[in-house]
Specification:
The protein is built from 13 helices and 26 strands. The chain has 423 residues and is of the alpha/beta class. α2 links the parallel β4 and β5. The longest helix has 17 residues.
Amino acid sequence: MKRVSDPERLDLAEFVRPGDRIVIGQACGEPTTLVEALIRQGREIGGLSAFIATSFSGLFTPDTAESFALSSMGAIGALRAMTKAHRLAVIPCHVSQVGPYIRDGILPCDVALIQVSPPDDEGFHSCGLISDYVLAAVERARVVIAEVNDQVPYTFGERIHRSQIHCAVEVSRPPVEVPPAPITPVDEAIARHCAEYIGDGAVLQTGVGAVPDAILRLLRDRRDLGVHSGMLGDGLVDLVEAGVVTNARKEIDRGVSINGALIGTERLYRWAHRNPAIRMCPTSYTHDPAVLAKLSRLVTINSALEVDLTGQVNAEQSGAAYVGGTGGQVDFVRAGARSPGGRALIALPATAKGGKISRIVPSLSGPVTTARTEVDVIVTEYGAAELKGQSLAERARRLVAIAHPDFRESLDRAAFEIAQRGF
């Protein structure tokens, strides 16, 4: 293994060949020093392509990514600007499919660029803030270049031995942070309806953002909540410190919060450092149907761009603009809807563009992310529509009831047509 103590002296051409396919650690586990080197040196190497599932660093722009082809599973975080410029190739897939795609060679990986913690006494690096598809990339790649960052927490779970790394670039810089989003009155209203489905002993899966944060704030009076999620933010720390999240009633992984990605601030990262109360796992565990089937009272919370009157969910595309992604929504919707005592919530504001358009629509303007056969509960600031087991006509009626009042009349007409057709 080669060690590079001065990142400015890293020469990617020693390890990366023209035409190589690169897989990059995502979200707050993005190896920003290595990405910066790729941006500087990619043109000289030539013919490179790179995949990253999500990015919040802001390093990828139409200008900086000119020298290589960039692909992703969606336009999440800072990648949205890349899709607007038509510089991002979107590969429709669930986040749980990325690891298997890499292992099977469907998503080629010649070079893995990853971020890890410093090694322990046995020579094992922690994957730190992201554990979803990192190990799959390491095992498949011809070359593994690791950004060894002494500000990355050592988290328990996925580990990489130094013998698996071909080049270790030593850095000391804050990892990417995603601060909590401002919470609006609409977010608070949505959160209140969602919180009604979360009782003592529930196991939570949620994302990060204003609505999830608002929901977590309303759970201070609950007891023995558990966590099994694909990603977590700073709100988890508050509930753990308040004694609300104990994981004491989970059928599996008792006493431990299961997670795949830490997306937050330095406070979250500091809390997670060598903390046995959290375990970072790959999607082969966090999203696995067999694992999720062992959890009762699983309440899953996901978001959407729009929902049609039959219950179809679009979480990816608004008209011609690709602005989201499939993520782990389908995996968790299925799990929550089938969990004994559990529920699967899809939460979204009733309107967009300052109230000019309804997010409850007669028909979707983009793809179906989650099929109506999978959907359980749709939540807006106006209430919750329980759709599971309901006819198409009844679904339409319930969805109109949680739409913004300004759009209910037109939606009622569309719902009447659905009832007349009988399907």
